[in-house]
Design a protein that fits this description.
Radius of gyration: 30 Å
Low-confidence stretches: 1-7, 13-21, 489-497
Distance between the termini: 34 Å
Shape: elongated
Number of helices: 20
Strand order of the largest sheet: 1-2
Helix content: 55-70%
Structural class: mainly alpha
Number of strands: 6
Length: about 500
């Protein structure tokens, strides 16, 4: 039995209609028996696909316009169908027409409502069309606008990280490898690293949308239609740049669902890793970050606790998105051409994955916007752990020493400090000169964390100059992404008036 999902769909009165007598299915004609109530409940998809109700209506409007233009139906019939489809949309939005979940799917419900209002004319809406190409279209329309919304959330989070980074270009902290202190960086450099990952997540959605930008309508069940359909008409009407060029391919694959879910899974991976750092940083052992109380919870038994539950939940829900991706791969891996009913099960997985990512991006951005940073505590992490050892080696390289030899000298200095229980900046110059006569008084300036940071001035490095350049580039990415979104033809949305 399908789990009920009401995300992105109007109030459907499901509880009131669940016990209604099952309606005749669109395919009932050659059958003498109806499905049992148990069979009907098992195969019904309307609780899942009802979120695509307005996409279904939009596809039907384009289809009947084409039918009228091609003289397959009378122009006045096409006009009446378009007008009544628009009325049905308005009635659903207002609540005047609740979605009746006793129907097999959302297509059946819309066609039944149309036929009730227009009689035989309503029955012409499905001319030259199958539910196979109809659902392939509905999914593309729905996923197109959902992916665009996710991209907006990615841009917003990137912008939030840039705003925080701008305030912390000189806020020192230790960078880590293997969770061991490595070299001094800045909080800004750290945040920019995550922001750059988000730009690639954005790009993956763009790539998927480009490949999805083909209209399957007109492929019918698998072999097209004997009627003179104009597939390019409906593609243009619905804002697609092309058609799917093989009628079997148009209805037989769900690679666009898999690709979008894979993009969501990768983005969730980045959020999960970032959440892991937030969880560590909020601990007493680190105390780099102080999450706002509105994004923290307490304990039912330990009154002192302030837990990073929302970061933990995002980290945990990443596994659900991985599961959705594997479910889609498993669903499709053994299916022969063309359509198979197994493919009905794609929607719940892709919808859940995209819902989870959207909520996670929104929560994470709000959590980061309200967080406070303990810059003194972060800076203290640069002292101890010999995070400046590489800079000592670089100092000797600049004096003309081969790097491998310099590496050994720096290691020797670290060993001496460990034996004495001090840090490199505390080792007397007399001890340094024993390690190498090239070491002079100026070495202590090079060992300061801020000097270590700003010495890394290669492109993409953590120096203040390079980090400011990164932030400028990330801001430009956000601006270009927003401009691109504004310049695209407005997709059909559930919020359309």
């Amino acid at each position: 039995m399908h789990a009920k999902s009401t995300k992105d769909c109007p109030q459907n009165g499901a509880e009131n209609n669940a016990q209604n007598k099952p309606k005749d299915a669109l395919w009932q004609g050659r059958f003498t028996k109806t499905l049992s109530a148990q069979a009907l409940d098992f195969e019904t998809s309307i609780r899942i696909d009802s979120r695509m109700v307005f996409d279904d209506i939009q596809g039907s409007i384009a289809h009947v316009k084409m039918l009228g233009a091609q003289k397959i139906i009378e122009p006045q019939e096409a006009a009446a169908l378009v007008r009544e489809l628009q009325n049905i949309e308005s009635d659903i939005r207002s609540g005047k027409l609740p979605i009746d979940t006793s129907f097999e799917d959302i297509h059946s419900f819309i066609e039944h409502a149309l036929t009730e209002r227009l009689g035989d004319t309503g029955k012409k809406v499905h001319t030259g069309r199958s539910r196979n190409d109809q659902i392939a279209l509905d999914e593309r329309l729905y996923l197109r606008r959902t992916a665009a919304d996710l991209q907006k959330r990615i841009v917003h989070l990137t912008d939030v990280l840039c705003t925080i980074a701008e305030k912390h270009v000189s806020s020192l902290m230790s960078g880590y490898t293997h969770l061991q202190r490595a070299q001094p960086v800045s909080l800004a450099q750290h945040l920019c690293a995550w922001a750059w990952m988000l730009t690639r997540d954005y790009g993956r959605f763009s790539d998927a949308l480009t490949r999805m930008d083909e209209c399957p309508l007109g492929a019918a069940a698998l072999a097209g239609s004997g009627l003179p359909l104009d597939r390019f008409y409906t593609a243009k009407e619905l804002g697609f740049s092309d058609i799917v060029h093989n009628s079997m391919d148009a209805v037989a694959d769900r690679d666009y669902c898999i690709e979008l879910t894979a993009a969501a899974a990768l983005c969730m991976t980045h959020l999960s890793r970032f959440c892991e750092e937030v969880i560590l940083w909020s601990s007493s052992e680190f105390h780099f970050i102080n999450l706002d109380e509105q994004w923290s919870t307490g304990s039912s038994i330990m009154p002192q606790k302030k837990n990073p539950d929302f970061a933990e939940l995002i980290r945990g829900r990443t596994g659900r998105v991985y599961g959705d991706l594997i479910a889609l791969f498993t669903l499709m891996k053994g299916l022969p051409l063309a359509y198979n009913r197994d493919m009905q099960e794609d929607k719940q997985s892709v919808f859940e994955a995209l819902d989870t990512l959207g909520a996670s991006l929104e929560v994470f951005a709000a959590m980061m916007e309200t967080a406070q940073w303990d810059t003194e505590r972060m800076a203290s992490s640069c002292r101890g752990g010999f995070a400046n050892a590489t800079d000592l080696a670089d100092y000797l390289v600049k004096k003309g020493m081969p790097f491998r030899t310099a590496h050994g000298c720096a290691a020797s200095a670290v060993k001496t400090c460990i034996e004495r229980g001090i840090q490199l900046e505390d080792l007397p110059l007399s001890e340094y000169t024993k390690i190498s006569p090239l070491i002079e008084e100026d070495v202590f300036v090079c060992l300061e964390p801020a000097a270590c940071l700003n010495a890394k001035n290669t492109a993409g490095g953590p120096s203040e100059k390079q980090v400011r350049t990164q932030i400028e580039s990330l801001r430009l990415f956000c601006k270009n992404a927003e401009t691109h979104a504004e310049s695209r033809p407005a997709p059909y949305t559930n919020d359309r008036p």
